[in-house]
Design brief:
InterPro entries: Acyl_CoA_acyltransferase (IPR016181), GNAT_dom (IPR000182). By secondary structure, the protein is an alpha+beta fold. It is built from 6 helices and 8 strands; from the N terminus they run E-E-H-H-H-H-E-E-E-H-E-H-E-E.
Length: 176
């Protein structure tokens, strides 16, 4: 896959060297609620995942890309297309920037723009969607700034700190 390059970042395919980054990210309990993770991942499982990362989106039904700053190979985040449905031309989108000090710097905005452009122009998708905790103001802002619209609210969908939170379903339909 060709790297997708923006002004300050680029997106690239996962590499075996990403094992430790993904291990730290997937085992960070602070973000488990975003990824619906309940248990830690071993390096063994992540290594197996990376060994199968060569599958294309049509086979794996997902595409996970590393977000990297220009002039660096090291990943600072991940952006995903998941539940890829080539029959109905749609996919879900997820994004995470690992370190909080790297957030709110436009990295997520640039990564999401690159992924939207790729999904609509290269994959010819008709629509993208995102599931976002209603309390995640930063993610709601990021996605709505790209035209994602709230089309439904799942009541008491996410349990966090023994409280239930709503989750919004946001959708972006490609303009013809």
């Amino acid at each position: 896959m060709v790297t997708l390059t923006g002004n300050t970042i680029y997106l690239r395919a996962l590499e075996p060297d990403d094992l430790e980054f993904i291990y730290r990210l997937e085992n960070n309990e602070a973000i488990w609620e975003v990824s619906n993770t309940q248990t830690p991942y071993s390096r063994f499982l992540i290594r197996q995942y990376l060994e199968n990362a060569h599958q294309d989106i049509y086979e794996a039904k997902q595409l996970r890309l590393a977000i990297c700053k220009k002039n660096s190979f090291d990943a600072i985040g991940l952006i995903d297309l998941f539940d890829f449905d080539p029959v109905n031309n749609r996919a879900g989108v997820g994004i995470i920037i690992q370190d909080t000090e790297e957030r709110n710097k436009g990295i997520g905005t640039e990564a999401l723009q690159l992924l939207i452009d790729y999904a609509f122009s290269r994959l010819q998708l008709h629509q993208l969607y995102a599931n976002i905790d209603s309390g995640n103001v930063a993610s709601v802002s990021l996605f709505t700034n790209f035209g994602f619209e709230l089309i439904g609210q799942k009541k008491d969908w996410i349990k966090k700190n023994n409280n239930y939170h709503d989750e919004g379903l946001y959708q972006l339909i490609r303009q013809q």
